[in-house]
Amino acid sequence: MHILLTATLLAGVPLGPSGATMARAEELPESAVSSPPMEMDDPGTPGSQGVEVNLVGTFLRAGQGRGSETLLDANYGIGDRIQLKFERPYLTQSFGRKQFQHGFGATEFGVKWRFTDHAGLQIATYPQYGCNDAFVTKDEEGNAEDKEGRSFYVPLLLSKSMGRANTLAANVGYRRNLENRGDDIDLALGAGRAFGRDARVLIEVFSERDEHFVNRQTDVRAGYVGTLLPTLWTKFELGGFVSLGHSIGSTEEGEPRTSFTFGVSFVKRPRGES
């Protein structure tokens, strides 16, 4: 079970990941907290025939252990309020006494539908299906470990614009592991602010918990999103993003965790917009 509750205060023009084109029509700066580089998402969609492709790199550190994730996140807009998502990560890890391991992580598909968009309030649902196609990891003795299995996740995404530069947002979601290997609950709070039309800063607190609400890991994260080339051939934009996260309190591994995320976002503006 995976419930995501996120509150975010942001500012500015929708740039880059998930929701980069919504506010442009109103000539407002983007203010949504989005993933990447944050964990939470926003109700924004790319617009009719709009495309957003994010190339994301994340480095992880837990005590003496190291890991990384290289993610392809592709999104396509159908109409003004629907978005299709495909993502697939490539992972490396070396935690505890385990040997260095690497391979493709689980493929995930999603459909976002923003069903409310009025007076600065936006609400969307974002069902996602995780496949059971990740590479097989091994334990300290070299024996194969069980995969996480298939999962189904249905979050509710909410955001409320606060003036021209700030947004308050929340996510509430549920993830079910279809192999009966345990469900998850996530709780998160975040804030951010836009600076001009091409930059915004974000912060969040993200907590992952089990089905009994016992804490697995809680992270504090700060991020920055900016447009690198805002008028690339009039119909395209190139953006960049970065974030730094660190765990607070206990973790499942018993070691504090630090994450550093960076990447670029390629955006094709929606049909009829130049």
CATH first level = Mainly Beta
Note the run of SSEs as H and E. EEEEEEEEEEEEEEE
Which value, in Å, is the CA radius of gyration? 18 Å
Number of strands: 15
Global mean pLDDT: 84
Poorly predicted sequence stretches spanning 5 or more consecutive residues: 1-16, 19-26
Query: How many domains make up the coordinates?
Result: 1
Helix content: under 10%
Q: Choose one word for the global shape.
A: globular
**Sheet/helix structural class:** mainly beta
Characterize the main sheet: 15 strands, mixed
CATH topology: Porin
Distance between the termini: 42 Å
Explain how this protein is built.
The chain is an all-beta fold and 274 residues long. It has a single domain, classed as monomeric porin ompg (Porin), CATH 2.40.160. Helix content is 0%, strand content 58%. The chain has no helices and 15 strands. The protein has strands spanning 4-10, 51-62, 65-78, 82-94, 101-104, 108-118, 121-125, 128-130, 151-162, 166-177, 184-195, 199-210, 215-232, 236-248, 257-268. The protein has a 15-stranded mixed sheet that branches. A hairpin with an 8-residue loop joins strand 14 (236-248) and strand 15 (257-268). The model is unreliable at 1-16 and 19-26 (pLDDT under 50).
